Amino acid sequence: MKIESWPEYLRRISGGQTQAQIAERIGIGRLSVCNWLHGKTQPKAETVITVARALGRPPVEALIVASYLAAEEATAQFELRGSLADVDGASLGTEVLRRLTA
Q1: Of 36, 59, 77, 99, whose CB is crowded by the most CB atoms within 10 A?
Q2: How many whole angstroms separate alpha carbon 66 and alpha carbon 45?
Q3: pLDDT of the chain, 102 residues: tens digit per residue
Q4: Cα(62)–Cα(51) distance, rounded to whole angstroms?
């Protein structure tokens, strides 16, 4: 299956809005939108996420279309870990003790 191009995707998700309307909704200049729609430039990954959120689409979907992620990367299992700075002292002490006695 061929994934649509960024210009095709942007046209589809913007629902026929003008370049100026899209730009205003995203909070960028109209020239950037014009360049994207004509395939002259591609937005940065951070901007792709902003575009998706502003137009009510999943950011991962937009990152795949913009070629920042492969589809299989989006479905890969991963584990998010919190920072140790967020763990209270008692919990940290309990975990250290558990690991030392295991």
Answers
A1: 36
A2: 8
A3: 678 999 999 999 999 999 999 999 999 999 999 999 999 999 999 999 999 999 999 999 999 999 999 988 888 777 777 777 888 888 888 888 898 998
A4: 8
